[in-house]
Amino acid sequence: MSLDQADPIFVGGTVGKSVAKPDNLEKVQGRAEYIADLYRPGMLHGAILASPHAHARINGYDLTDALDAPGVVAIITGDDVGDGRMGAFIKDEHAIAKGKVLYVGEPVAAVAARTEEEARQACRLIRVEYEELPAVLSPEAGLEPDAPILHEKLSEYIKVFDAGSEGNLCSRTELSEGDVDAAWADCDVIVEDEFTTQPQAHVSMEPCGALAEVDATGRVTLWSANQSVFRVQANVCESLGLPMSKLRSLTPRVGAGFGNKMEPHIQPITVALAMKAKRPVKLILSREEDFEMVRARHPYRVRMKTGAKADGTLVARDCEVLVDCGAFADDSPGVLGYSLLMCGGPYRIPNLRASGRLVYTNKLRFGAFRGFGNPQVLFAGEQQIDQIGDKLGLDPFEIRRRNMLQEGDQWFVGPRIGSNGLARCMDAVEEAAKGPRADGSPRNFGLSVTAHISGLLGTGAIVRMLEDGTISLNTGATDIGQGSDTVLAQICAEELKLPFDQVVVASPDTDGSPYNWGTTASRVTYTTGRAVKAAAGKVVEQAMDHAAEMLDCDVEDLELREGGRIGQRGSNTDVTFAEISGRAHWAVGGPLVGSETLVFDEPTHDPKRAIALGLPFPRIGVFSFAALGVDIDIDDTSGQVTVHEAWSAADVGRAINPRLVDVQLHGGFVQGLGYALYEEMVWDGARLANPSLMDYKVPTARDVPDAIHTFIIEDPDPTGPFGAKGAGEIGLNTVPGAIANAVAKATSARHTDLPLTGERVLDGMLGPDPSQD
C-alpha cells in the first residue's frame, strides 16, 4: 500500500488515529524542497572562513587576493557588523567573530561568489592576522584563578536572568528542598560516585543552511533550516542591528533538528552577505563545518550521592554538576537549570539539593539537544537507584515503585503533577520482558525511568474558516520531520468535527504566523496544541451564532455535528460550514477567524518549600513519563555491548497520532543507543579530531535491535489538548541509564563514564590490574 493510501481520511474523530503525514509522499518522491533545493534569480553562493585558533585576537584582514578571485562579489568580516550581540539567555555572541576568536571553527569571514566552489576558493585567499592567546579547554581549567578570560566584557552583556556570571563562569544554579546535610544520618544505605558524559553531535541528515534576499526597500526575506522562525528573526536582528520589521523569516522543509537547527550563526552571516552583495545569497555548511561550527550535547561531570532507609525509601540526594558551555552561552543556562530540576528523577526524595556551574571554554558552543540535560543526570541517578536496590535486595521495579511520584505530588522545588502514568509504563515493560529469552537463556536486563516536561513559554494559533467551509491553520510552529503539522491539524479537525483533509497548515512565516517560541523541549503538541484547540473553539462559537440566526433558534439548542455541520438537537435540520462561512464572508458579520495566544504560566518554583537561585525558567511543567527495559549481550573478547531487545513505554497523556508517537519512541531509542555506546566528539587539543561520518560513529541498521517494543500509555493531562502531553525527547532520556544497569547486571561492574565502549566494558569485566596496586 502506498504511503498516501496508508490511512483513510477519518470522519468521526481524528484524534487517536494514525493519520499519515501529508508530506510523506513528496519526501519519498524527492519533491520536498529543502534549502539546497531553493533558488532565486541572480543568486550567489556563500562560504565561510573558519578560525584555525581556539583563542586569538584578530589584528587585521588582508582581502586583496580574495576580492580579485574569480566570481567573488562580496566579502564580510567582523568589521562589517556592529557590536550587536545575540543569545537566548546571555547576549554574548556576534554574528561573526569580531575582535577575537573563541574556538577552532568560529566564522571569521564569509564570501559570496557565483558558485560555491569559487566562494570556498576565495576563502582560502583571505589573510587574517592573529595574535594567539592561551586557550581554556576544560571547565576545570576555566575556573582556575589565573585562567585566561574569554569574555572580558561579560559584566556588560545583557542577561535575561540573574546568571551569577563572572570570569569564565557563564552561569550558576542552585536548588534545594529539605535539609540534605542532616538527612544522611537517617539513611541506612548511601551510594556516592562521580560520572562523566561526553559531547554528542546532532548529525541531522540536513546540514544547516540559509538563503537571503534583499528587496528594493532594503527589507530582507530569509529562508533557513530552523526550529523557530521567530528565534531566527531575533538572532539576526539583534546581531546585525536590524529592526525586526525589516526581516521576514520563513522555513522550507527541514531535514531534522534535535536542537542543532536553533543554530545562530548561519542566518545572520547569510543576511549580511546578501545586504553587502545586493543579490540573493545561499550558504550551506559542509558536513565537516556542521560538526565543527554548530553545536553539540553538553559534556557533564556529575557528582551524586543518594541515601535510603532499610526498606528502600529514598531519603536524600545531593547532585553537583560541572558543565562545559563552550565559547558562547546559547541555550546552556537553560540546559543546566533544567538538568538540575530533573536530577531527582520521578521520585519522592524529601531532601534534595542540586547545584551546577556552567563554564565558558574555547570549544564550539554546546547547546540544546534532544533531552536538554536530562540524559546526563539520569545516567547517574538511575544507576544509583539500582545500586540501592541491590544493597537492599529489592529488584529494579520494586525499588522504583516504592518511591515514584504520584498524581498530585509536587516535583522538585514546586511544579505539581497533573497526570502520571509511570506505574503503568513500568507494568507494561515488566510484563513484556519477564522470564527468559525465547531460547531459554537468561536476560541481561536493565531498567530506567524518566519524566520530561511539555509546558514552556509562548505560542499562538490562528484558525480561519475559508469560504467553502474548509480550514486554514497557522501556528508558527516548525515541523522538523516529527509530524507536528499533522498532529496540530488533527487537534484542529477534532475540535471542529471536520475530516482531517479539510484542514491545511500554513508554513511558518514571521510576516503572518502567530508567535511560537520554538520546536524544542517537547512542547509543540501540548503548548501549541492548547492554542490550536482554543482558537478552533472560537471559530465554533462564531459559527454557532450564525447558525442560530440561520435556523431561527437559540444557540443553546444547537449541536456541532460530524463533517462540518451545525444542527438543532432532536432535529435533522442543519446548516453546513460552507453555508455559514458564505453568509459570514458576503452578508453578515465578516469572515470567521479564531485566534489564541498563551504563555505557559505555572510557576516552576514554590518559594514556601524550596530555594531556587539562578533558575532560568520561571515557569515550566506538565510531565510525561516513561520506562525503558533493555536486554543486552556482551562480547567476551571485545567487550562490545549489543542490545538484544528493548521495551519502551511512555505516558504521553493522549496519543493524538499513535504512529507518530511510536516513531518518536523508536527514534529516541536509536539516538540514545548511539549516545550510550558509540558516539563521542573527541578533541585533539583545541581541534575536533573526528568531524566526519568516517570517524564519528552513529548507529546503523546493523547496530539497532530488531525487536524494539513500544507501549503507548495514556493518562490524560487535564490541561492538555484532548489530554495530550509531549513525546519528542522522552524516548532518549532513559537509554544510557538502562544500558548501564544492564551492563552492571551482566558483568557485576559499574560504569560511570559514557560512552560504554567495548574497551571500557572489557576493562570492567577483567577487573583492576593487580600490577597497579
What does this 3D model show about the protein?
There is one protein chain. With 773 residues, the protein is an alpha+beta fold. The chain has three domains: 35-133 and 207-254 and 260-293, Aldehyde Oxidoreductase, domain 3, CATH 3.90.1170; 300-455 and 604-770, Aldehyde oxidase/xanthine dehydrogenase, molybdopterin binding domain (Aldehyde Oxidoreductase, domain 4); 458-599, Aldehyde Oxidoreductase, domain 4. The chain is built from 19 helices and 29 strands. The strands form seven sheets. Strands 3-5-1-12-9-10-11 form a seven-stranded mixed β-sheet. Strand 17 and strand 18 form a beta hairpin. Helix 6 (229-240) packs across helix 7 (266-277). It starts with 23 loop residues before the first helix and ends in a 7-residue tail after the last helix. Mean pLDDT is 95; it is low at 1-11.
How would you summarize this macromolecular structure in one to three sentences?
The protein is built from 19 helices and 29 strands. It is of the alpha+beta class and 773 residues long.
Q: Mind telling me the CATH superfamily name of the largest domain?
A: Aldehyde oxidase/xanthine dehydrogenase, molybdopterin binding domain
How many domains? 3
The CATH class name of the largest domain reads Alpha Beta
If you average the pLDDT, what whole number results?
95
Largest sheet: number of strands, sense, barrel closure = 7 strands, mixed
Structural class: alpha+beta
The number of distinct helices, counting runs of at least 4 residues, comes to 19
Supply Rg: 27 Å
Which strand order do you get reading across the main beta sheet? 3-5-1-12-9-10-11
Helix content: 25-40%
CATH architecture of the largest domain: 2-Layer Sandwich
Organism: Pseudooceanicola atlanticus
Pfam families: Ald_Xan_dh_C, MoCoBD_1, MoCoBD_2
GO molecular function, one term: iron ion binding
Protein name: Aldehyde oxidase/xanthine dehydrogenase a/b hammerhead domain-containing protein
